[in-house]
Amino acid sequence: MTGARPPVTTTPWRLTPGPVVCVGETMAALAPDPPSRLLTAPQLRLSVAGAESNVAMYLADHGIPVAWLSALGDDPLGHRVRATVAAPGVDVSYVRTDPHRPTGVLVKDPGPDGTRVHYYRRGSAASALDPGLLDGPPVRTAALLHLTGITPALSASCHGLVTRALTTEPGNRPYAVSFDVNHRAALWPDGTAPAVLRELADRADIVFVGLDEAQALWGGHLTEEAVRAQLPHPRILVVKDGARAATAFTDEGTVVVPTPRVTVVEAVGAGDAFAAGFLTGLLRGTGTTGALRLGHITAASALQVTGDHGPLPDQGETEALLALPAREWAERALVTPWA
């Protein structure tokens, strides 16, 4: 993916409203219930886990037309994944059922130093996704294609899919591309993640990355501005700094929105929720500040529940939060009585 980049235009870029397609693997997930070490857990809870489908489900919650594109095994776990993702209103009609490959599985092992995740996804149905997926519906009619850095680590064909989606220069693609770096160290044992993820991310229109994630990949000294120097080409770069703030770099300038205080039950899925909220704001034309706020509001819904997907506030509550003066927003504690 080499070649000259197009010159930056003086006209502010806007995301065209329209349907979204999220592409990536979703697995069956097993976790000790109640949380404990896997070795001694009396029972496991079955759920589903997938970054891209998390984004799709939250987009559907926000009323955005969205399809999830993937492959599942022709097995009970695959049928469960399909039904779970479809429940909020996500279009799963293009998800392929593979009679020869299984649905992927992950198992969580909570411990005092954090949760280890064991993946059983090698040879899964989704690992056989390939660039041809981009040639037909629903991708060709999408306004936005959402990808993550998980997919290129799954197989050579998955890497090829993401590479092809990002090879065409921005402005010449039939859709915009958003890319969440989503670095999963366990999927990159060969040490190629920093270079590959930087190259892919720098080709996208919209990029999401955590500051700690960027520091782990590209240097512990990095500030938000230094991350932008690492990724100069995306039209919008969002750098999330956990409980402190989220910063968006655009061709109109830099916008920082503090993270409201939230009681965290479980952090899993919060980054996906933030991405869905931010993209919803862009699609609705709320402006960068409104999109960042909607990202925070959506992330709070994930942070305050066990699991990846929590309920959103009603529309009136959301509109009230978006309308708060800057000082009141900065001092706000997001409590979800709707959860």
Please describe the topology of this protein.
Layout: E1 20-23, E2 27-32, E3 44-49, H1 51-61, E4 66-69, E5 71-73, H2 76-86, E6 96-98, E7 105-111, E8 114-120, E9 144-148, H3 156-167, E10 176-180, H4 193-201, E11 206-210, H5 211-218, H6 224-230, E12 236-241, E13 245-250, E14 253-258, E15 261-262, H7 270-284, H8 287-303, H9 315-322, H10 326-331, E16 333-334
Parallel strand pairs: 1-4, 1-9, 2-7, 5-6, 9-10, 10-11, 11-12, 15-16
Antiparallel strand pairs: 2-3, 7-8, 12-13, 13-14
Explain what the structure shows.
- This protein is α/β, with parallel strands linked by helices and 339 residues long.
- It is globular, with a radius of gyration of 19 Å.
- Strands 4-1-9-10-11-12-13-14 form an 8-stranded mixed sheet, sandwiched between helices. Strands 3-2-7-8 form a 4-stranded mixed sheet.
- The termini are far apart.
- Helix 3 links the parallel strand 9 and strand 10.
- The chain has helices at 51-61, 76-86, 156-167, 193-201, 211-218, 224-230, 270-284, 287-303, 315-322, 326-331, and strands spanning 20-23, 27-32, 44-49, 66-69, 71-73, 96-98, 105-111, 114-120, 144-148, 176-180, 206-210, 236-241, 245-250, 253-258, 261-262, 333-334.
- The relative contact order is 0.13.
